[in-house]
Predict the 3D structure of the following.
Amino acid sequence: MAAPVNRFKADLKVGKQTIGCWLTQGTGIAAEIAATADFDWLLVDAEHSPNDIPSIITQLQVIAGYSAAALVRPPVGEPVIIKQLLDIGCQTLIVPMVESGEQAEMLVRAMRYPPDGIRGVGGAGARATGFSSHADYLTTANDEMCLVVQLESRAGYYALDEILAVEGVDAVFIGPSDFSANLGHIGNPGAPEVQAAITDSLQRIKAAGKASGIMSLDPVAAKSYLDQGVDFVAVAIDSLTLAKALRSTAAACR
């Protein structure tokens, strides 16, 4: 049996536009609630959320019972952490703060077995291999890995063309909050300079034949990005959605 098909990567390949939700609460129950909604994918965030390997694997197991694809954002693009995430069954990583072609090349290699990469071969008892039930996993896993790099800084913006030239980078995801802060407009992603840089980046990503993604919590803006041809848009954050709903309910009942 081969490695499981990466549904998120398959959607990118055929040009299907998708929407997703950021999971930040660190629990299987929260992930399952999100999985009952009509999102194409769910991103388990370990950079700005209280997630670790045990909590991530619980959420991957929960999401697997539903139709949404599961993505993970590691706290940092470090090969040892990447190896652990791949072994617990993650196939798509959104790696934060990628700022050079050299860094992107390292990430590609960290997600692939030799001779194409440096991923350690030790998953016989791991969830990724179906605990050795996927007999052909080692020879098929590389093709199902999906690397999304995050564009979040001025350095990354200046290096975008060299990042896009790296074979094995499947997509570039723009993080408006960090991007605006690094461009000198913290808390104001709508600043003209930031918006111009985002538009320029999206055009260059498309011209390079890569997929693009962005976060936009405003439904009107999210639809605008989809109309522009952005391939995948994060349209919700679970904890923020919960907070807004609870505050709205409390206010309405006062």
